[in-house]
Amino acid sequence: MSKADLCAAILWIGATMYAVFGGADFGGGLWDLVAGDAEKGKRPRARIQRSLTPVWEANHVWLVFILVVLWTAFPEVFAAVMSTLYVPLTLAALGIVLRGAGFAFRKSVESLPAQQVLGASFAVSSVMTPFFMGTVVGAIASGNVPPEGNGAAFSSWLEPLPLLTGAMFVASGAYLAAIFLIADSRRAGDAEMEEYFRRRALGAAAVAGAFAVAGIFALHSDARYVFDRLVAEGLPLAILSALCGLGVLAMLLRRQTRGLRPLAILAVAAVIWGWGVAQFPYLLPTSLDIASAAAPGPTLTSVLIVFLVAAVTILPALGLLYTLAQREMVGESSE
Amino acid sequence: MLALGALPLAASESNLLAARELMAFTLGFHIVLASIGVAFPAIVLTANYIGLKKRDPDAMRLARRWSKVAAVTFATGAVTGTVLSFEFGLLWPEFMARFGDVFGIAFAIEGLFFFTEAIFLAIYIYGWKRLGGWAHFWSGVPMLVAGIGGAFSVVTANSWMNQPQGFTLDAAGKVVDTEPLQVLFNPAWSYEVPHMILAAYMVAGFLFASVYAVGMLKGRRDRHHRLGLLIPLTIACIATPLQIFWGDVAAREVADHQPAKFAAFECIQETGPNQTEYLGGICTDEGVKGAVGIPGLDSLLVGFSTDTVVTGLNDIPADERPPANTLLHLSFDTMVGIGFGLLALAAWLLWAWWRRRDIPQTPWFLRAVAISGAGAIVAVWCGWIVTEVGRQPWIVQGYMRTEEAVTEAEGIWFAFAGVMLLYIALGATAILVIRAMARRWREQGDGGEAESPYGPSTGSSA
After folding, report:
1. What pLDDT was estimated at residue A110?
2. Is 90 exceeded by the pLDDT of residue B457?
3. B428 touches chain A (CB under 8 A)
4. Residues paired with B396 in a beta bridge
């Protein structure tokens, strides 16, 4: 593997972390959105808020990580994506502002109307942000981003595959969130919420699975290169994802929780890596590959060093945060 | 190698202005929150340390409340910072395409510090109840280091734009080699980075202190308010003289390495010795109108002798002169003026403390502290106007013009208007939320937190 390939792998590791942890945060927002009126939705919203509060900001640093690695290691790809897909990217950035502010402010205000306005801002943007990010990924896979940039501002992403990818991002986040919230409810000894999120996890799994299958058809028509490799080199990962997804379904139906989270994470991670393998060696299929888009060697080395430092410092620190959060050593009602 | 015209200058003037205004506005908004993010750890940990060491419940209460405020400001800063990383690509795609692999190295390192700060801030601000006192204190220390490291990384990227080095271009203007250490430790980092870190400590320190000064002016003169004023104010007052020293160093470096910027903000029209230092006034081609001039002082400040020759705008090619000289000049003077005002405030506090071990008793002192936070913020904005507008027409000094970097995307003015409305709402809501928190603390004590969304705090589940 060349240094450039390793940097591309780092990008995919970042994307996986963001899809899993950031995705679950977005999913939490979706479940908040559909939790019903103030009275009915009070308990699920409280559960979601308790689970998200200590971790959501750290989870979203992965997005900044992806952007920075992309522009440092593959600057032309970054510029081409940004100058072509500026419409969905601007909408995603808007969603990030509304979501973070809505969530952080909501728990600091007391009046019900203010909580509802801020909560709505958080919840609606939790759906909007991953959707538009998904359209960006779908547009890249479709080959709609020209390497010189300034591609079509609207038709590049208003196509079946990008829109479907957006929907899949939303659904997979909802699916992961529900699975995580089952475990959190169980640990809190809240059987009612455990059942509440179990039913929603089943629904989200079915929807995400349906989008994935539809996505394969859309790949076939809109992104032939990616499709061809997905059913060849990427097949083991596609099968792994399907098996994990089915395993999660079976466990949910049988009310088993042990090992549920790793299996669900693996199902999502396998899709991300399946996509990576399928569009290899291209970053922009089929016009710009990893080697020709790569920054000069010393820059790539710097990115690799930064990543190694992150692996030995940030990952354990994240582990500490998650462990403390799981044991409710850090949490909200901290007075 | 200079300004290779490899890229078409298709972007309209209008796009360039809109993109610059949008960048300036969002950066100006973020820098306030980023400053709090950089300096908050030192302030809160000082209170926390006093609280633990001297078993001081007032200091502990302050640290607890400040960390709740930081939860709001850090969340807001995190989203406005994310917006900026989008804007790099959305507004300046050609800059990123050409130089992303050079100055991006600094941002990759910034990512590490941002992660560290986000993780340990979460542990610290949400760990008050369950973590043991000193374990909790130490969980806050990484965020202090990360704040400083993060500020280094971001500001060194900016200083690279002012004094770029550490890369090789081919004939087409494409970067073909990089030297990461040369990029990170470009000559401008050594004055820009300390200048901004000290500025961050001044913004956060004076801002926190001004809140308690307002409270004391309203008659709340308990120990809680006194301590709340003194801890951040002391930190800011230590930073102030250092800042003036570093600002002086920075101005001399700019005079040496970015003479166009220096001549523009000092309104120097003709190269020569014995330059007058102008305070205030309007810059015109014929010199400064309506300013107070001190003959020879500018040369003296630049080279410690009135014989020092300072470059004037007449020696800068017309198409390389910074725009808006009056704006630059007044921004620079405002920044320096506020700096000396804050230095006087620090001296006042030091004198009173030396004489009576107390803050000055007159309400005028509290009034001065009450406006010091806003003053520090204005000074930071002015400083960024000087460094950024003063570098124009370049985005990378000597290598790339801002007009070459800007996007061809449509609707930037529209985006600017939308972002302005959004950020005004964001800022107003953040202030309202923090004020509501403070009011709740006063009325109900520390127990009155909203615990569950969409419901009264009393009936919290779980």
Report:
1. 79
2. no
3. no
4. B400
